Recover the amino acids of this structure.
């Protein structure tokens, strides 16, 4: 614990752009219906790729949120972040103005940055020479620009940075934002993750590393966490953003809705391998243990886990082991789901959209399912809420995110009570 | 290529680069003050004009071109068809 006088931190607004829809409601409705957002790749010709499927964001028009000139020079991953942040602020009915701008910060994580622009500009560089490279190349591609642009378009002048911890980035961002409010440094934070990496090079590269599913003939059945027939993750894109506040600030300003309270943040590293989780699950175990310790909770109080659940051979078995190690016998009783079965894996944005799913699970007492779990891997022997959602009271929930490089993050959310 | 043809082409290029309506790209329009170009936009505009007219516009000379008409006049002097 950092200080004796920690502030309580609550979620008061949310914004989402996902393969299941471009609002929180569409996203949540898709999750609860057990609908898959995975389909054939349309962003580029994938005919020569081993993997031809992804969870693309569809029907997204940045001009719904941004002036044409602004949208033109904001790359897709940052557009998602800015627009989802605008949704979150509107959802919270929160106004950022001269009187409070320095008390509102932004942390938005991502894993890959503006790779699409890098690929396009590299082609121009090679075919037309160095003088033809766009002056917007760097500000369109650097990972921190999503947070910077969100500040420009919202006016928030508080702490502003980017967590770049691969697939843990979105959860890292929320955890860091939680700490800044908890320790009294700011009153509100816009936080979460964004990613738009469904590009020719990125799909080829992940595929070469044998991490992507190539179940191309059955896109909706390709992401199948904890299933015996899983053969890799399916890449998704989008953004998930939370507006979180000091509880007293939220009450004082008359916040319309408090969705949940953030109570714990655990982060560790495997120090083991660049892509593979340590087989002992030690790092993931400690992340969950630390999140619970931070929240002053015991394993028997946990009522749901939103798993990282990538649908790769290594992750799902190791995460299952880690959950058992962190929660003991309680692990057998806790409903767990991988919403990546429906959205695919949004890399640095996954922690953002999964935090939203977890917050809504806590708030609404509805647990989204793990679809495509037809025949569980014997190493994955917990209750993963297969196929259909479940109505069940959820008081405390964990959201797990683990990234290449061995980064492990677990966030703890609690049903809000005065 | 007539001045009108040059203007028409400049209008299209500037409109695309600055995401402005073509009608706003008048001869008198100042690229910065009226059309909202910042220094990065200006670099992109002159790169696109170089490509469109297959010519070179040195940075020192580009700095002197403040309005659409000045751009049209400059290109008119350089481009001979």
């Amino acid at each position: 614990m950092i200080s004796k006088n920690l502030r309580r931190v609550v979620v008061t607004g949310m914004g989402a752009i996902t393969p299941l829809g471009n609002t929180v409601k569409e996203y949540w409705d898709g999750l609860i219906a057990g609908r898959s957002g995975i389909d054939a790749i349309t962003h580029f010709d994938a005919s020569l790729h081993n993997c031809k499927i992804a969870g693309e964001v569809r029907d997204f028009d940045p001009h719904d949120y941004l002036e044409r000139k602004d949208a033109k020079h904001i790359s897709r991953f940052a557009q998602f972040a800015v627009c989802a942040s605008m949704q979150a602020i509107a959802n919270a009915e929160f106004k950022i103005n001269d009187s409070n701008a320095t008390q509102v910060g932004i942390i938005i994580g991502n894993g890959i940055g503006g790779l699409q622009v890098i690929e396009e500009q590299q082609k121009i560089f090679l075919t037309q020479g160095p003088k033809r490279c766009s002056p917007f190349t760097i500000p369109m591609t650097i990972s921190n620009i999503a947070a910077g642009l969100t500040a420009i378009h919202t006016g928030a002048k508080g702490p502003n940075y980017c967590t770049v911890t691969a697939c843990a980035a979105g959860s890292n961002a929320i955890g860091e934002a939680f700490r800044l409010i908890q320790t009294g440094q700011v009153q509100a934070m816009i936080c979460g993750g964004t990613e738009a990496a469904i590009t020719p090079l990125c799909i080829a590269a992940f595929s070469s590393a044998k991490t992507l599913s190539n179940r191309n003939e059955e896109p909706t059945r390709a992401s199948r966490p904890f299933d015996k027939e899983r053969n890799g993750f399916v890449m998704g894109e989008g953004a998930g953003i939370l507006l979180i506040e000091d509880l007293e600030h939220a009450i004082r300003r008359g916040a319309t809705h408090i969705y949940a309270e953030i109570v714990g943040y655990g982060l560790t590293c495997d120090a083991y391998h660049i892509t593979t989780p340590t087989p002992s699950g030690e790092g993931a175990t400690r992340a969950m243990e630390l999140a619970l310790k931070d929240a002053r909770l015991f394993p028997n109080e946990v009522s749901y886990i939103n798993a990282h659940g990538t649908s790769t051979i290594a992750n799902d078995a190791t995460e299952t082991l880690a959950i058992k190690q962190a929660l003991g016998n309680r692990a057998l009783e806790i409903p767990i789901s991988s919403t990546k079965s429906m959205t695919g894996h949004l890399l640095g944005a996954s922690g953002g959209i999964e935090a939203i799913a977890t917050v809504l699970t806590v708030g609404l007492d509805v647990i989204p399912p793990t679809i495509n779990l037809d025949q569980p891997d014997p190493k994955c022997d917990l209750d993963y809420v297969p196929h259909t959602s479940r109505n069940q009271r959820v008081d405390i929930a964990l959201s797990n995110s683990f990234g290449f490089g061995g980064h492990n993050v677990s966030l703890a959310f609690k049903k809000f009570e005065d | 290529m007539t001045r009108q043809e040059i203007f028409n082409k400049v209008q299209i290029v500037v409109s695309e680069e600055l995401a402005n309506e073509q009608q706003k790209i008048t001869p008198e329009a100042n690229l910065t003050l009226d059309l909202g170009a910042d220094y990065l936009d200006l670099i992109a505009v002159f790169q696109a004009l170089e490509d469109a007219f297959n010519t070179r516009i040195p940075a020192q000379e580009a700095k002197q071109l403040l309005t659409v008409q000045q751009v049209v006049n400059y290109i008119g002097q350089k481009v001979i068809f």
